[in-house]
Specification:
The complex is a heterodimer of chains A (297) and B (104). By secondary structure, chain A is mainly α. Chain A has 10 helices and 2 strands, in the order ααββαααααααα. The chains are: A mainly alpha (297), B mainly alpha (104).
């Protein structure tokens, strides 16, 4: 009898623990996946910031090297032609701000998926609000057509975040936030990817005249200044190559974000997924961290 | 909206670059200066949203085609290099005008 009671106790303990695990699983949010999604996007943003900075440096070099052969004035080395500016910096800032909005939105999701979500969501939402304002400001420095592309981005989400979402059960809140954001994510990613393709074209356009000018002033073979000159110019070419490759890598990663977002959203509905896009995104984001490390700064 | 102007301007710049390598002295120098200007205009055309229907845009495209026809493949020295330089200089003015007038 005692043995039987003991056995039945054990069975109950096993049953209750299994039930606990099952309930836990059912209620458990894919926190790690939200973390991976946000961290990967954040890595792409870091790489983008670095890449854009290098493009600005290349543009400066190009503007100085191709300055018209005339007396120096304050305007001489500015990126101008016929009084019109071809400065890429406002374009780059706008794209960087768009990516920052995306990263901050993913941080909101990450915060929503945490235990201490009320406090974390508040902070993340404020940050997202700030980055949305930055994006709108940087779009206003560009032609109106650009401003239109980002007007209203995440407006529905922000509206809901301020009112309803956080009052709900976390899983429902996440579902609602992700559903409201999916179209805007598609839009933001398309905007940045298209821009990076456009920006990539500028690298070759700037590099060819730099090479021509270098050939004009290259020290003669066998002279002492030849090697340092060539080494310096080799670094410029290598950096331009890395910039182009890096823009491609960032684009490959970015293109996975909408699908990875959808995969996690489907997971909330308990639909099985292999998370292929999320894995691809993480792989590209890791790869993007490795650019420029062999270059001399 | 179109980026064809940017592509064609870049194409013209590339031909001028090839010509500059084939020529020497004053002509080479002048061609390189034209190439610098074309490169700057290409960048401007890349960052601008342009209306391809605008007459200034179409005039610039016609100018580029004319210059490219005159230069050909830019794979050998050109006898009428002074004429080429003048036509390209006029084309540059037309592109500048298009980038100003056809901007959206």
């Amino acid at each position: 009898m005692t043995t039987l009671q003991g056995r039945s106790k054990i069975v109950w303990v096993i049953f209750l623990s299994s039930l606990g695990v099952l309930i836990g699983c059912a209620a458990r949010l894919p926190t790690a996946k939200y973390e991976l999604l946000q961290e990967s996007a954040s890595s792409l943003l870091n790489n983008t910031t670095d890449t854009y900075f290098r493009i600005e440096k290349l543009q400066h070099r190009f503007a100085v090297t191709t300055a018209p052969d005339a007396a120096i004035t304050r305007q001489s080395f500015k990126p101008l032609i016929g009084g019109q500016s071809f400065d890429l910096t406002p374009e780059l800032r706008f794209r960087e701000d768009a990516l920052e909005v995306l990263v901050d939105y993913l941080q909101v999701l990450r915060a929503l998926a945490t235990k201490d979500y009320l406090k974390n969501v508040d902070k993340a939402t404020l940050q997202l609000g700030g980055s949305l304002r930055n994006l709108l400001e940087s779009s206003q420095l560009l032609p109106e057509s650009q401003e239109t592309k980002v007007t209203g981005i995440f407006a529905a989400l922000m509206n809901q975040m301020a009112r309803e979402i956080v009052k709900q059960e976390t899983r429902t809140a996440l579902k609602q936030a992700m559903d409201l954001a999916q179209d805007d994510i598609d839009k933001l990613v398309a905007l940045i990817v298209q821009s990076n393709l456009k920006i990539k074209l500028t690298i070759g356009v700037m590099l060819t005249p730099l090479i021509n000018h270098a050939n004009e002033v290259r020290p003669q073979a066998g002279t002492l200044p030849r090697l340092p000159f060539d080494l310096e110019f080799a670094a410029i070419i290598a950096e331009a190559d890395e910039i182009e490759a890096s823009l491609d890598a960032v684009n490959r990663g970015l293109e996975k974000i909408p699908a990875a977002h959808k995969e996690i959203r489907r997971h909330l509905d308990k639909i099985q997924s292999a998370f292929d896009s999320l894995q691809e995104l993480a792989r590209e984001a890791r790869r993007a961290q490795k650019f420029y490390r062999n270059l001399k700064d | 909206m179109s980026h064809e102007l940017a592509e064609k301007t870049a194409g013209l710049a590339s031909r001028i670059n090839n010509l500059a390598v084939l020529h020497s002295g004053k002509h080479s120098r002048q061609l390189l200066e034209l190439q610098d200007q074309l490169a700057r205009l290409t960048l401007l055309a890349i960052v601008r949203e342009l209306n391809a229907e605008h007459e200034a845009y179409q005039a610039a495209m016609a100018g580029i085609h004319q210059a490219i026809d005159l230069i050909g493949e830019a794979d050998k020295k050109i006898k009428k290099i002074t004429e080429v330089i003048n036509v390209v200089a006029q084309t540059i003015n037309a592109i500048e005008q298009a980038l100003m007038d056809a901007a959206l």
